[in-house]
Amino acid sequence: MAATICPAIEERHVAEQRRYGTPSEVQHPERKTVALVGGALGLLLLLAVVRMAWTPLHRADQRVTDSLNAMVAGNDVAVKVLRGLTDFGGHTLLLRVLLLVPLYLLIRRQYHLAAYAVVTVLGALIPGPSWEFLVGSLGPALDAPVAVASGTSFPSGHALGSLVAYGVLLLVFLPAMGRRKTLAMAATALVVAVVGVTRVALGVHSLSAVVAGWLLGIAWLAITAAAFRRRRGDRLPAWQPISSGLAPEAGDALRAAPHEPEVLAHPWRTAGELTVAWMLVFGMLFGAGSLLTGPLAGSRLVTTDEAIVKWIAGSRDPALGPLAALGSKVGNTHWIMAAVLTAMVLIVALPRRWRPVVFLAVVMLGEVTLFLAASTVVGRDRPDVPHLGPEIPPTASFPSGHVAAPLCLYGALALLVWHWSRGWLRWVAVGAGVLVPAYVGFSRLYWGVHHPLDLGGSLLLAICWVTACWWAIRPAASPGSGGQDDAARRATTALPSSS
To answer: Which residues of 22-47 are buried (b: 16+ CB within 10 A; e: fewer)?
Structure first.
């Protein structure tokens, strides 16, 4: 009996060592609390010296802030870059992680990990008001600050938020990264550090506030990770390293495309085809826009186009204002980005494919570049009517970027859903692909910022570009088919042989 049981125990022991590492390769159990204790003690010490207004710390903070702020003050390009980088640690990032990561984990049936992500990210959103009461620290005093931040100055919310958000992503998805774990950890540390530096360089936080945000984030991640492991302790070996992630056994379930051998069969050929398609679509937009602003400028077509906008502006009803405002928001950058990220998460979680994600990313990247290039070169003026809503973007009127974005996004999604599903879901996707852009287009006309022919330019852009991307990338192709889509493959195999 013992001879039968012992080999089984030994075999399980060896398997766990291969999966998680041996005890000699991992920190001792008593060292697992180093992050928690170190982060908490460092934060309390820093809190005490800031509360006491310790002069050496204040001088060091001011010296570092003055040096970094002086490097970027007066440089508009540098300030814009810093503002863009600092957004990687804002509340918008935390909210997207709070929504999208649990959504993916719930679809993959990783309920404990989803609960961990929700609790950890929500906890990072709470401390702000309490710290303002405890510390009462103001932001650094600068002669020429390049940015202003709302909320508490100590600790830095961006430093805390970025460390917690990217820390959650890292701990949850490490088991699915295979040999890229070291690269993922290095990239996470780099992004968190960059966010912290931008807060100091913009003059909205001192160095001590950034460090306090990092220490609080480390302590909070350690607490939630320890609680998660305590909850699941009976399922983990005693020597499991943190570098294996929170749930090493969930690696296969978390992996995005385990059965997709290649994303694109011929990436360089696909890139060449897309480049040619982009140039052709841009040429069509440039030609159509040049006709509207040149030879056809005084024609009946253009005058009717302008008259329609004036008629709509003269028929405005206050009751329609909120509806038009919502329609414009649906087509702006923030809403489109949120919809794109949500669609990508669903694609990776359900069909577990990367090629449709690449297709969607290329469609939206091409839409943005085509819109910016065409509107800059054509330069058609916006309608000569009172504009509603906030300040209008500095781009020209033809084509409408607000309409082109939902046309491309929901049109691409409708194609994917039509291929993957059957019945009513197909028509829901097609309806969204038609009704959402139409709603946005009506809103832009109602606001008086576009002509009807501008919307026609957006429709031309979307139809041509989405069709080109579908043909070049073939997102419906089955994994390993080399780009041949399922329908064509089934038709080919169903043909009788020539013999």
So the answer is: eeeebeeeeebeebbeebbebbeebb
Asked if 358 and 473 touch (Cβ cutoff 8 Å), the reply is yes
Burial of 268 (0-12, 13-18, 19+ CB in 10 A): exposed
The radius of gyration computed from the CA coordinates of the chain, to the nearest angstrom, equals 28
Structural domain spans, the chain: 31-254, 267-478
Q: Which of 398, 336, 392 shows the shortest CA–CA distance to 361?
A: 336
In this predicted model, what pLDDT tens digit does every residue of 19-75 receive, in sequence order? Answer: 444 443 344 444 445 555 555 566 556 555 555 555 565 566 666 666 666 666 666
Residue 464: how many CB atoms within 10 A of its CB? Answer: 18
- Residues 477, 386 contacting (CB under 8 angstroms): no
Phi, psi of 485 (to 5 degrees): -75, 165
Is the pTM of the predicted complex or chain greater than 0.85? Answer: no
CB atoms within 10 A of CB 188: 18
Fold held by 267-478: Vanadium-containing Chloroperoxidase; domain 1 (1.20.144)
